[in-house]
Input
Amino acid sequence: DFWADADIIHTYTRAQALADGALVAVDDKTAREAGFLIPVALTRAAWEDCVTWTDEDEKRKRALQDEAGRLWDVLWMASLAARRHRGIDRIAFQVLRVPRDGRGVKPRLAHLILHIGPGDTAEPVVTIMTPLDA
Output
């Protein structure tokens, strides 16, 4: 292997990304209900764009949204995409969500990527990210 004797300059583990908040873990129960049997996390950017919904957002938008529902929408659409494309480790999918910015309340498409890959100990994990995170 070409890299076998190379020095490792830096590593950043999934556990560190979760601890730092760069990744946001989905609780196992919710992930299982959506059809995932392995750990799921979203990048901070995907979480902020598609899941976060504060009381201030609701007062301003009056869109009848909450974080649990927005997270469910992301997980459900990701789960459907994963089932449709079995055996593929990187899958583009979309979810409708009301954007937090601006004044509009019309749902808009958000483009996301589901990546199934190895975790810190080579266990399978799911990471949902924006195309800019990829």
The chain has a mean pLDDT of 93. The chain is about 35% helix and 25% strand.
